[in-house]
């Protein structure tokens, strides 16, 4: 087809990841810088130290003491299972995302929030 362009895989994942974010995360988290909800904003989460947003004060002691950094691998570990199993003592109540494609797309989307 002349003139047709295909979306790069990362952009396609951004779209699918945004849909997953809206369905799974947006009730408690925003994607907007400085806009916290029940949970902290996900803006800039990629490679950020866990429990480090200065304008959010409701982190659990478990998360504050975790010394985690939100790398893609850490996000995958945390979001692929029940949050209380991944980090006992966390305040986040989430049962985990078991679809690997959705999980990967969500992580691409979260890392795009800059």
Automatic annotation (TrEMBL):
InterPro entries: Cyt_c-like_dom (IPR009056), Cyt_c-like_dom_sf (IPR036909), Cyt_c_1A/1B (IPR002327). It comes from Xanthomonas campestris pv. campestris (strain ATCC 33913 / DSM 3586 / NCPPB 528 / LMG 568 / P 25). PANTHER family: CYTOCHROME C. The keyword Transcription regulation does not apply. It comes from the Bacteria. SUPFAM superfamilies: Cytochrome c. Keywords: Electron transport, Heme, Iron, Metal-binding, Transport. GO terms for molecular function: electron transfer activity; heme binding; metal ion binding. Gene3D superfamilies: Cytochrome c-like domain (1.10.760.10). The keyword Translocase does not apply. Pfam families: Cytochrom_C (PF00034). Residues 12-114 form the Cytochrome c domain. This is Cytochrome C2.
């Amino acid at each position: 087809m002349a003139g047709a362009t295909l979306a790069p895989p990362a952009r396609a994942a951004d779209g699918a990841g945004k849909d997953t974010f809206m369905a799974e995360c947006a009730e408690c988290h925003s994607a907007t810088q400085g806009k916290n909800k029940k949970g902290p904003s996900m803006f800039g989460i990629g490679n950020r130290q866990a429990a480090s947003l200065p304008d959010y004060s409701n982190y659990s002691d478990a998360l504050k003491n975790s010394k985690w950094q939100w790398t893609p691998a850490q996000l995958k570990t945390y979001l692929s299972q029940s949050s209380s199993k991944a980090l006992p003592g966390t305040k986040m109540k989430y049962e985990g995302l078991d679809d690997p494609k959705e999980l990967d797309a969500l992580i691409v989307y979260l890392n795009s929030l800059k």
